[in-house]
Amino acid sequence: MKRFALPATALALCGAFLLTVVAQDKPAASSPAGAAPPATQAAAAPAAPAASAPAEVVCFESRKGATELTQKEIKPGLLNVKCSPTTGAALWYGDPYHGTVPMGKMPGLETIPEGQAVVRPRADKLNFLAQCGTACHNGTFPKGFPKDKRAVPIPTMEAMVPDVKELQHGRGRIWCLDCHHTTKRNMLVDHYGDPISIEQPQLLCGKCHGDKLRDWRDGIHGKRIGDFTSTGKKRWFTCTECHNPHNVQDGARNRGFVQIAPETPPQLPHGMTSAAHEKVHPIAH
């Protein structure tokens, strides 16, 4: 019996050692509730990387700083607008009428069916519009009005809207309330003193620029997109979408409005070496 006692003792000691090792290697799920996982296991689990949101793509439609449009999907796989990587301008529209509303009554356009002429509202893009009519000019006349029609410098306003410090519109012969309503500063004004919606600046601009209003109305001046049949629905771009009314002489140039860089020329189709045929009139004279 003695010859089996020593091996049995050694086997028992080995079994006890193995049980100790297995107990240490048990998974964390078997540990008591609320117990912290071993430090080695916590360090071994890498943290999941935070998903970064894609950068917004913003392009302008006709004038930088006034007609910005953020690219987004309006239907699965259909973007509202494609932006130029060269100039940042809008190249084409997935839906030219997305976000538009009826233009409203316009003298000379009474024959256009309701809803066939649309515009994109811009009031929500004008940062100080609500503040103009409430916080700063809440139904009050300016100092000296109506005898004195010279604007009084207001440093706070000049800091917010630098263009008004040296108003170039009219070359110094007009002042703020020739265009803005006397007490409703978030609206424009006609010659009779009646308010005009900020969304219909053509009714204001036509007071002085009758020839340009006529050309805009007839489709000679300005920009439109949509259905180009005679009775098709079109989006009309209003005056202030292309022109800055406070700086129409464009600073040092003292004429025109801010010019944009042209797009790069289109590439010829594969296999074509020249586009000289474009210079030839299709009908012989």
Topology record:
Layout: H1 2-24, H2 39-44, E1 58-60, E2 68-70, E3 73-75, E4 78-79, E5 81-83, E6 90-93, E7 101-102, E8 117-119, H3 129-136, H4 155-160, E9 188-189, E10 195-196, H5 201-205, H6 210-218, E11 224-226, E12 234-236, H7 239-242
Parallel strand pairs: 8-12
Antiparallel strand pairs: 1-2, 3-4, 5-6, 7-8, 9-10, 11-12
Features:
285 residues; alpha+beta; 7 helices; globular
Question: How would you characterize the overall build of this protein?
Answer:
The protein is an alpha+beta fold. Among the domains are: 55-95, no CATH class; 99-253, no CATH class. The chain contains seven helices and twelve strands. The protein is globular, with a radius of gyration of 35 Å. The termini are far apart. The chain has helices spanning 2-24, 39-44, 129-136, 155-160, 201-205, 210-218, 239-242; strands spanning 58-60, 68-70, 73-75, 78-79, 81-83, 90-93, 101-102, 117-119, 188-189, 195-196, 224-226, 234-236.
Beta-strand proportion: 5-15%
Given as residue ranges, the uncertain stretches (5+ residues, pLDDT < 50) are 21-36, 38-43
Share of helix, binned:
10-25%
Largest sheet: 4 strands, mixed
Record the strand order, biggest sheet: 7-8-12-11
Structural class: alpha+beta
Rg, Å, rounded: 35 Å
SSE sequence, one letter per element: HHEEEEEEEEHHEEHHEEH
Gross geometry: globular
Arithmetic mean of pLDDT: 78
- Alpha-carbon distance between the two ends: 129 Å
Q: How many beta-strand segments?
A: 12
Number of helices: 7
Briefly characterize the structure:
21% of the residues lie in helices and 12% in strands. It has helices spanning 2-24, 39-44, 129-136, 155-160, 201-205, 210-218, 239-242; strands spanning 58-60, 68-70, 73-75, 78-79, 81-83, 90-93, 101-102, 117-119, 188-189, 195-196, 224-226, 234-236.
